[in-house]
Structures are given as C-alpha cells and as structure tokens.
Amino acid sequence: MPEGKFCNKKPVDTAEGINELLSDTSGNTYYQEMKELDIDSDLLWKTIQNTFKSRMKTWFEICAHCGMCAESCFLYQVNGRDPRQVPAYKIQSTLGEIIKQKGKVDNQFMRDTMETAWAKCTCCNRCGMYCPHGIDTGIMFGYLRGLLYQQGFVPWELKIGAGMHRVYRAQMDVTDEDFVDTFEWMVEEYEDDYPGLMVPVDKEGADIMYTVNAREVKHYPEDLAEAAILFHIAGENWTVPSKGWEETSLAMFAGDWAACKMQVESVYEAMERLKPKRMIGTECGHAHRATVIEGPYWAGRKNGQPPSESIHYVEWLAEALNTGKLKIDPSKRIKEPVTLQDSCNYIRNQGLKKATRDIIKHIVEPGYFIEMSPNKEHNYCCGGGGGFNGIGKFRKQRNIALITKRDQILATGAKLVLAPCHNCWDAIRDLEEEYEIGIRWSFFKPIVIKMLDIPEHLRPEE
Q: Quick one: average pLDDT of 184-200?
C-alpha cells in the first residue's frame, strides 16, 4: 500500500519536505494517510532483536504487576484512576504486545499505541522512583517511540520537529545566521542600560560556552539579552558558538534517534572547536537531558560525558549568587507568595533540587516561598513534558493532564510560579489560559535582573 504524500516512513531531511508537511494544516491529511500505512513486521521484529537489550528484558521479566507504579503516575490519578493508565499496563499492552507478537501487529494497534506513547506518558520517570524493582517505564516508552517513528506512527508536529533538527540542527527553522544576528541585535537593544554589554561569538578558550533553546531565538529573544546581561554583570569570560548553539532535541520526543545523534554532535563539535572550560545550557529541562545526560550515549562517548564539563543554567546562577558574582538588593526581593516548579528532567534525572532552592534563598524574602506538595524529586510533571505540549491531536488529553499541576499550585496559594524550564513554562502558561486561576509565571533570568545590585562601574552614566 502506498505511503502517501505526507505520512511516509522516511525521515524528513530537507527544507522542502518540512514545508510540505507544514502545508498540511494541523496534520489532517497526514493522519488520514497514517490509517493506510502498512506495518513492516519483519523490520520491526528485526529492530527489536537487535536493540531490545538485557536491561529492558529484565524489566519485563521482573515486573510483579503489583500496581505500585499506579499512584506514582499523575496521568493515572487525573484520569479517574483508569486501570488502563497504570504505567505497567501501558507498556505491557503496547511494547509488550509488539514483542509477544514478534512485530506482527496491525495499523489500528499502532495508531492506538501512538496515542498511549505520546498522550498517556510524558516520560517523566517518576514511576521508576516508586517501583520496588526500579523498573523505569519512561525509558521503555522512549524506546517504544523509536519503534513507532520507524514505522511512520509519530505525531505530525514531532515529525516536523525531528526534521528541523536534521535540516537546521535546531528545533525550529532557525539558521546559524539567524541565531547570531538575533543575539547581537538583542544585546544592542540593551547597550545603553549596560555599558560594555556584548555577545562574544566563537571565542576560543572561554570559561563558558552558552547554548540556548531555539524557541528563544524565534519567540523569546529577550531571553538571549537577559543571559548576556547576567554574564556581563557577573564578569564572566563567555562565548556562544556560531554553530552548535541549539541544545534542545524534539527528535528525542519523536523517537528519531538518528536525528538525536546529529543534533547533539553539533553541540559537541562546538565544544571541541572552542574548547571552553564549561558549557552552560539555558533554562530548559529536556535540553539538558538531551545534551548532557542522554547525549553522550547517542554520540557514542564511552565515558558518558560531553567533551566539556556541562551544567544547567540553575547551577551557574546558584553558583554566581552564592559566590557573590551576582548580588541581590535585599529591598527588591520577592515579597509575595511564590512557588517553584521542579522540572522532571534536571531534578529527577540529575538531582538539581539544591541549586534551585539556593537561588530562591537569595531572591525571595524569608517566609514567602511555599513548596508544592509533593516537591523536589517527588514533584509531578508539569503536564506537558515529553512533547505533550506541542501535539495538537492530543490537546484534550494534555489539558486534562494540566489539572494535577493546577491543583498543586492552587494548594500553595502562590500567585507567582518560578519555572526554570521551557516545557514547564509553556505548560503553566497554557494552564492559566485554560483554567484562569490567576497566576503569573517566570524564568529565573528576568526576576534576578530586576533585583540586581549592579556595581557602580557597570552602571550607565547619568
């Protein structure tokens, strides 16, 4: 059966192909053609035989079906405790069934599995914390997404996003020239307020190589200027690469592992070319996971580390505040109830709970910070992680998923939510638009800039 104009099994790897997919409004034709896709059962089963290794085999064999993963899953809780939302069931009834049938599954099964893989799991890894055997269903869902991508069963937006990484090495159609021009333009906008402010490009041997989320270049360019301002005030020796500046990976959400490798290698090539002491990534959780935690393995780095020491932005900001590189004017600290969204990808996967709370101690007046319950590594996903935010086909399910975070925020009484992660920021923005609970949300950068005690020699002349 023909694969159709839009929904083919081949990766999108040209600008023309991306534009063609984008011309299919909301992916309507794409999803219609998906219904006609044949399953290459031989390839599916061969892929599983070559890649389904001992760790996941063991997880399948030792699952006791005890149900302890159920209550750990916010999607199970928020969907009426439907047994079909139990993590163990979700993976056994999808990936487990594909393995049991040795790849001989039909089109309807694969479309149902696509919905489970992207609308019933955000790969937040919380279930793995509560499983008595340490079974991480989130990791298995990531593997399942790769199998689905291979067969052409991937949400329209993520097919496009993975293609963007292949073509532009960025999650959006932002070229290297766009990035440098936008960064320089935004810095120029703030030069009068911060004399000497600049963005060093391709500076070798700098203490810091800064990488960003392409969404900042496309939609939030003020974030670029804010990063430059904070590095400037802190007196950092920093740079940005003209190539390899994009830290995120929608390809990871899509299960396009080849594109994941291409993307992260572009960042590593920049590190090897510029030889910075450290790479610092922007306020984005999945970007950190893709580049620092998962990336080394995609790139085949045997030591499991990027070429340069790599840290998340919250680590640098906490360090700069703790060492006095950045100083806060106490009179400008936050004096209203405020809470913090812990991002799954750098709290559960790298344990950065202390760094974020160090920052809170500097910028929030004592008594005004209210923890969500639960919090830190026990916190729930924002409701939009793992690509869930951007998939129009599953928007209804995503909006239901936001209820958990809505209720957590409401329970704190806070009107300001600090969300140092792009996915979390987007989900909380959408949460407010959907449920109108009367909150504001912010990254750390603009909040800190407003309360800086700027040294005299860095202030503009009167």
A: 95
